[in-house]
Amino acid sequence: MRRPIIAGNWKMNNTINEAVELVNGLKRELDNINSVDIVVSPPFTALSDVNELTMDSNIKLSAQNVYWEEKGAFTGEVSTAMLKDAGCAYVIVGHSERRQYFNETNEAVNKRLKAALAGGLKVIVCVGEVLEERESGKAFDVIKDHVQGSLQGLSKLDMNNVILAYEPVWAIGTGKTASPEQAQEIHQYIRGLLKDIFDEETAAEIRIQYGGSVKPDNIKELMQKEDVDGALVGGASLNIDSFSAIVKGAI
Ligand code: PGA
């Protein structure tokens, strides 16, 4: 059985004080949950302070991006070692906003992923089609390209520390969730791709999160789908009550 994983992607939101307030509330609400992996992903500036509060808790810390070089003249970038130093156990790579606004390619996602894994982070790798791609019947091709390109050269062993997130871009921050059936269709397709790239056993073990307007009132039906193993939550992760309810809805 795959253990559910709910991750909050805070994006470019929350000052240090706001982050501390949010995570204190989450600790209160989620203290006794031990059957779901709970992850929060604050902006870089709040990582250390959030780590102080989460290090002895059931909430794990994630960053939203990482650079593949170890150190040096790469202004504005942050390395795996720096993220570990700040307390991160996870990092998100390949988010659609990175792909869309920062021209991130599969190749760059793959380099980030490999560097993060080599440095001992668990990695949430995002894939997903935009609206025109879905409407023109290209969703499966795009997903295949993202999955194959992002995971290029990884071993079965590497996959122990990889979580995939299917995020249809048309459902992110729009209030339009993919129906549980639409999510399941793509998740099942992704698992088939993983079987082709690795093997059946590896594919069966990898967790695939759904992301895109996940809310307390749709998490349960999404989680009921066979290949949906959790959620990557944006907007609703910024509120103590809604994120807590989503985590509880995934049990
Ligand atoms: P949303 O964002 O929940 O606000 O739609 C999801 C994401 O981008 O990870």
CATH class: Alpha Beta
Say how many strands there are.
8
CATH names the topology as TIM Barrel
Share in helix: 40-55%
Whole-number count of domains: 1
**Low-confidence sequence ranges:** none
Q: Give me the secondary-structure category.
A: alpha/beta
Largest sheet: 8 strands, parallel, barrel
Radius of gyration: 17 Å
Residue share in β-strands = 15-25%
Bound molecules: 2-phosphoglycolic acid
Distance between the termini: 13 Å
- The run of helices and strands is EHEHEHEHHEHHEHHEHEH
Which architecture would the CATH scheme give at its second level? Alpha-Beta Barrel
Question: What report would you give on this structure?
Answer:
With 251 residues, the protein is α/β, with parallel strands linked by helices. The chain has a single domain (5-249), classed as Alpha-Beta Barrel (TIM Barrel), CATH 3.20.20.70. It is built from eleven helices and eight strands. The protein has helices at 16-30, 47-54, 80-85, 96-101, 106-118, 131-135, 139-150, 180-197, 200-205, 219-223, 240-249; strands at residues 5-9, 37-41, 59-63, 90-93, 122-127, 162-166, 208-211, 230-233. Strands 1-2-3-4-5-6-7-8 form an eight-stranded parallel beta barrel, surrounded by six helices. Helix 1 links the parallel strand 1 (5-9) and strand 2 (37-41). Helix 1 packs parallel to helix 11 (240-249), helix 5 (106-118) runs parallel beside helix 7 and helix 7 (139-150) packs across helix 8 (180-197). The longest helix is centred in the C-terminal third of the chain and has 18 residues, at 180-197. The model has no long low-confidence stretch (mean pLDDT 97). 2-phosphoglycolic acid binds at residues 9, 167, 172-173, 211-214, 232-236.
